[in-house]
Amino acid sequence: MRRALCLFALLLATVLSLALSSVALAGLPDARNRPLRVSHAGTTTAYAGGAGGTRLKKIEGAGTAEETVTVYIGPVEIRGFATATEQLISYPLPAVRLVDGVASYLHRDALASVRAVTGPDGAPDEAAVYRPFGEQQEWVLDAAAAGEDKGFIGERYDAGAGLQYLNARYYDPRLAMFIQPDWFEVTQPGVGTALLQNSDH
After folding, report:
1. Residue 188 domain-assigned?
2. How many domains does the chain have?
3. Measured at the alpha carbon of residue 174, what is the angle toward residues 159 and 99, in degrees to the nearest 5?
4. Which of 15, 53, 5 is nearest to 177 (CA)?
5. Among 38, 123, 160, 168, whose Cα sits 20 to 30 Å from the Cα of 32?
6. How close are the terminal C-alpha atoms of the chain, in Å?
7. Domain for residue 198, yes or no?
8. Which domain holds residue 94?
9. pTM of this structure
């Protein structure tokens, strides 16, 4: 009975979060319960993931003439893949971003949220302010600079989907909730709750 109530509460929370969210999940999720397609503000974003839950590809404006593909190969990100505006982005250090070999610098707060990005000349390219649960309140962008996807707690924000990508799950900063449950079930064999039970010792 207790397990049934927990599952019902989880299902209810998921349904309510999706009903209140401006994000619409399209189609079935993958094996780890991550969305493959998301619609937000009239735009559809599609995702392809790899083994271990890594993201391999993001397609913003999926199915339209304005479709933009970003490919992820380990720590390297290729925006505008196979187009004339292709950009190669990497992060050799937590505070350094290379865009086509040109360095810019990420300025973070105590939560590792990116608060500002400065260019090689030291001039500010972007500045961000976040509400308590991660919603971006303000983002000032120098039109000549490459946009920064890393934001709240140093993780990627998919503006086209309105979601924060936290590797294992997607988080809606407007609702301050994850949009799907964890992909594993703690009552399944091999997962267990022993660490939680013994946390007082």
Report:
1. no
2. 1
3. 25
4. 15
5. 160
6. 29
7. no
8. 2-180
9. 0.73
